[in-house]
Amino acid sequence: MKKRIIISGCTGFVGSHLAEYCLKQGDEVYGTVLSHHLGDELTRIENIKDKIKLYECNLMNRGSVFKVLNETKPDMIFHLAASSFVPTSWKEPQEVLQNNIISELNIFETIRDLNLIDKTKIVLALSSEEYGLVHPDECPITEDQPLRPLSPYAVSKIGQEKLGYQYYQSYGLKTILTRFFNIEGPRRGQDFVISNFAKQIAEIEKGEREPVVKVGNLEAVRDFTDVKDVVRAYYLAATSENIKCGEPYNICSGNDISIRNMLDILLGLTEREIKVKQDPERMRPSDVTRLIGDYSKFNRATNWKPKIPLEETLKDTLNFWRKEL
User: In CATH, which superfamily holds the domain spanning 186-222+255-290+308-324?
Assistant: First the structure.
């Protein structure tokens, strides 16, 4: 049955792919976007902008949130809008904490104000960064893993998750808690590691920079999932009858790879001879050494499995930047 869906941050990386996916399911899609993002970010939804309705909405403003939800009365909300770049959270911790937690709180309170608790499901885009300090014998990580955050961003995501749990327990709000691990693919912002490497390589191929890729910590080990697999997981999270509200679910590939090996694969996709140089500015005050997830709980509830191989994701990302440049 056709559903009415709001995607906060629908012009973002994941949001734009999710909007496309929801449209393919025959749903009615609305999106929120900040007014100062109406320029470059709209290019991500260029192919579907006539099929969705955008609202200029500052989620930090309760009245702005009320207007959108009052007009749309959604069946589902995918809350993706957030300050999501981890290094920014060390430079601007107060802004990241306020933005991520208060924006979500405004959505929750507005759902209560409009008596939409029995109607509206809300999927929260949380993060594997919540796990933080993970010991080698604790991988792969299940949802029972202790949370030991190592960045203000991670703390903000724990705050979002606990708020989602509390509103479910206190008011019956249908909150679905998804802890996603690293997501990659076309349209990823250039500040994020794999997309940044791909952009540098594409610039080198076009002769726009010297044949040197600047890097940060290459020893970190991560769990990467293609964005197209992730949006399919988000949709299943919202529509599966076996998903339990107020409980966390990992969304990941279950495979581990170091950033160094990811870079090696990308470098193998170009004919240019490229050197690698570490840039001190790209190093973090503290970094999560190893994050590999276990998605078996989500699989049991939805039968979801990632389908797209990592090599295809990396190739798609590099080709995206080749086209963009």
Answer: UDP-galactose 4-epimerase, domain 1 (3.90.25.10)
